[in-house]
Amino acid sequence: MAKKLRRILRRIKIRWMRSDRAWGYAEAEKWTIHLDDRMDDKTLIEIATHETGHVVLPMVDESAIDLLGKQVADVLTRLGFSRNHEGVR
Questions:
Q1: What tens digit of pLDDT does each residue of 37-82 get?
Q2: Which of 38, 54, 77, 83 shows the greatest Cβ crowding within 10 Å of its Cβ?
Q3: Is residue 87 in a domain?
Q4: Domain that holds residue 55
Q5: Three-state SS sequence of 1-56
């Protein structure tokens, strides 16, 4: 199963940026997400999930992608997930 899943998974590129206009954006056709490196941990999880949703599920509308980002961020934060600040810009 894991071998089969690995064949269909495509790695999404992550690019760090600084912007006064948005926390992040996606380039679905390039399988790339751009994230502002100044976010707190919960916001980073939310925005990274949101932008990943745009890449993986481009047919899904914005309100559903927003909900996905918020729900995943809430669950992962309550489970104790946070960024390891070593090596993170």
A1: 999 999 999 999 999 999 999 999 999 999 999 999 999 999 999 8
A2: 54
A3: no
A4: 2-78
A5: CHHHHHHHCCCCEEEEECCCCCCEEEEHHHCEEEEECCCCHHHHHHHHHHHHHHHH
